[in-house]
Amino acid sequence: MPSGNVQQSGLRRAEVIAALSLATDLAMGQPVEFALKSCVLGMRLGAALGLGGDDLSEVYYHSLLRYVGCNAEVHAMAAMFGDELAFRRDFAPIDMGRVAEVAPLVFSYLRRANAGAGAVHMIAAVTRGMLVSQKFNADGIAAHCEVAERLAARLGLSAGVQRCLGQVYERWDGRGLPKGLKGEAIAPAVRVVCFAQDLIVLRAAHGDADACTKLKERSGSAYDPRIVDRFSRRTDEFTAGLDEASWDDVLALEPGTRATMSEEEFNAACLAMADFADLKSPYTAGHSRAVSALAGEAARRCGLTASDAIDLTRAGLLHDIGRGAVPARIWTKPGKLSSSEWEQVRLHPYYGERVLARPPALARLGAIVGQHHERCDGSGYHRGTRASGLSAQGKILAAAEAYQGSIEERPHRAALRPEAAAQALKREVREGRLDGDAATAVLAAAGHRVSVRRELVAGLTQRELDVLRLIARGQSMKEMARTLGISPKTVDNHTQSVYGKIGVKTRGGAALFAIEHGLGGTGPA
């Protein structure tokens, strides 16, 4: 990458992508470093198959980011099946082309998700779920792929990698989704990575011998027979040391020129990662962007150095990157959390810190991220650190997150008005939980906001903007109709118009567009 006057971040793109892959592991219910191991195996397979140049580069990045679209519409999955992390984990070893394997698990999760609602309701819900699950699955996969493609573009990845991410769930036999591509029409990298990741899942679930048997059984259906044959003849060579594959091994495999990202490119990557995290729940659309803006302005008001303010602004974007490790049903639960659910919530700053633990430039941000729910009196989480152990950046981030979260609607409460939120923040200071200077700076930053009429985006009318905001909040067609006081048919017409104007095809893509343009988390104007 030419340097000129462009400031470099010191971070390689592969380092940022590898860190993001850890977040996707968590969101898919897989062990951390699952994607890293699949990258090592995929690159071995790709080289053995004679892939080179762009194809091998696509194997590398596709294996790391295959599931970067996984937060699209995940709240809907949770509403139907319950714990989506367990659902995804249990379905990972299944051959999705075999109804005899898929149907019992779908039935089991539908029954479990509706078990507490009475026998009649449960039977009706399970029956309805079995009937609509196929379309539900198709819609979810289409949203996953569209969001993945858009995020990959924002991360600076090639058109080839973006194309691969649109084919994540395609199958060799043409029975995959979303396009039903068949055989050689599927990108080589997709075929390799699908096989590599399934191999890792099957080895963990069934052991080496049974995993190889299952892979051979799927040859010609789920997988390219040539890949299965090549692997079968050199199994020990391909899997040697795979369980010990490390972060450093993955970075050493990065193809092409290992240039660093510019500061601008790194900022764009942080924004993409923020939006990935916020898609987990319709209640958090745009949350990380807003927290970052507040924290960055507060940092300047507190007199932090320019570099510390930049770090805090980025940490604000990344502070919820660990949310994916917590099931969506917990984030969208309208009632009180159980003790076990609350314990899971308490761990999300820890997971965020772990995602950003490498390299040092990210670890510096991770240390701030890990403090965003700490409190000066030690009552916060996940460490219960007191004021003396918190950085100035951590104190500001905690105040910014507390204020911004309070003015946003949550499933268990309505949004506070700004003045009520300010009083709540001051009360936290009086009771010793938040730092006074940090809270004052955050409130000053928030006080500079004025109500202005937003310019229309992408040629959308005001009514279309209202519809787009409600899509980002996860409302159904009927719910939007009630909110706006119009018919579902009119809502559908507006929705199709919105999709056409902003260039998306799914609700997940529309929600991401809304977040990208600062339209997330607000109701109709």
Characterization of the model:
The chain has 525 residues and is mainly α. It has three domains: 227 residues, Orthogonal Bundle (Hypothetical protein af1432), CATH 1.10.3210; 187 residues, Orthogonal Bundle (Hypothetical protein af1432), CATH 1.10.3210.10; 55 residues, Winged helix-like DNA-binding domain superfamily/Winged helix DNA-binding domain (Arc Repressor Mutant, subunit A, Orthogonal Bundle), CATH 1.10.10. The chain is 62% helix and 2% strand. It contains 27 helices and two strands. The protein has a two-stranded antiparallel ribbon. Helix 22 packs antiparallel against helix 23. The chain is globular and about 70 Å long. The two termini are 43 Å apart. 49% of the residues are buried. About 1% of the residues have low confidence.
Concise description?
Helix content is 62%, strand content 2%.
The beta-strand count equals 2
CATH class of the largest domain: Mainly Alpha
Which strand-content bin applies to the residues?
A: under 5%
Q: What composes the largest sheet? A: 2 strands, antiparallel
Secondary-structure blueprint of this entry?
Layout: E1 8-12, H1 13-27, H2 34-48, H3 53-65, H4 74-81, H5 84-91, H6 99-113, H7 119-154, H8 159-165, H9 188-206, H10 208-217, H11 225-233, H12 235-239, H13 247-252, E2 260-262, H14 263-278, H15 287-301, H16 306-318, H17 328-331, H18 339-346, H19 348-355, H20 360-369, H21 392-406, H22 418-430, H23 436-447, H24 462-472, H25 477-484, H26 488-502, H27 507-516
